């Protein structure tokens, strides 16, 4: 877990019930990398787990795969749990909050608060879903308990899509900032002219590629803990440029821009897209009863962080605000170079951990165990990496891609699914108020997802 990921990568066996926690205050041991990801533990009768058979959600190893099990990670203290939750919530979305404010206007900040409140509530709902049965430990477990194996697979696919999309965002972010450092870079290869962005995207891919070939990601999980420092450095660079250097703060902007509001909705919702890890933060706590206060503290800190950066960034750059505020920082300043290189180097430590669960998900469906060799694994990971390169070259729009992820996947995982699962699991004990609240949130999520996704796709097509 680290502060610089927008959609935080789970552990390599997150659909098997293992902990999502990649790195806490001190990094935890890595789970086995050979566990299947989608197939769930099965009982002798091969029945789908329900609330009346909670033990069928217990975490056991599949007989199809043999792997050395590492010791289970230690339970987290209250402080560690708060830090994990903050690290999950405060991600790369913070780079685009000034741009979201510019697009939607000052009144759009109310949406930032509203989505914070809603996602805090749905985080509480996930806790209640976990408490409904002692065998439920992960988000896919919740989906299986509520809607059977199809529910588990649907949630798994949604989480994989989030992870894959995050890798595309990492590559775009790295290429944008590297291109800003070397704006005049050009190359002609086999008659093909490459501009600075295209060159930097290819270079970034080649730099990242060896990291995804690693079978043991323990080293990267230790390095990725530096994301906490990275985010602080970037935000301090922004404030330094505004308060100390020549940029300063200037008033301006519109009150509300309804035409651009769907983009803003997608960007703001992306900021709170960490619900996939909440069940595992809860399961890892020494005092799980204090989980609501963990969410309250982490959501409060995340909101004020996003709010502060959005306001400061927009007051500094106004209508010229870019989808990543680091691209607005004056190139000649040392602080700007520090921020740019920090953003460039950070994805190198995040990409492999994020794409690996997707790779294992694909490997699980290989028809023969003999195909699950190291060579095949490298081939699959290489294809995945180059596929993200192709997409990042085809759709090199950081803000639009982030808005698309926020509008579609985050709305689904953070708003719609928690409410739907809670209604299903608590249908006999849910109050009218809770039913009305969940139904309203589902409607808000669906409408926002449709409008935001359409707007994001349209902006990329134009």
Based on CA atoms alone, the radius of gyration comes out at 22 Å
CATH topology: Amino acid/polyamine transporter I
Total number of helical segments?
14
Low-pLDDT segments: 1-37, 40-73
H-E order = HHHHEEHHHHHHHHHH
Q: Give the spatial strand order of the biggest sheet.
A: 1-2
Helix content: 55-70%
Distance N to C terminus: 36 Å
Write out the CATH superfamily name.
Answer: Amino acid/polyamine transporter I
**Number of extended strands:** 2
Q: For this structure, what is the CATH class? A: Mainly Alpha
In what range is the share of β-strand residues?
under 5%
Mean pLDDT across residues: 80
The assigned CATH architecture is: Up-down Bundle
Largest sheet: 2 strands, antiparallel
Summarize the structure.
InterPro entries: AA_transpt_TM (IPR013057). This protein has 14 helices and two strands; from the N terminus they run H-H-H-H-E-E-H-H-H-H-H-H-H-H-H-H.
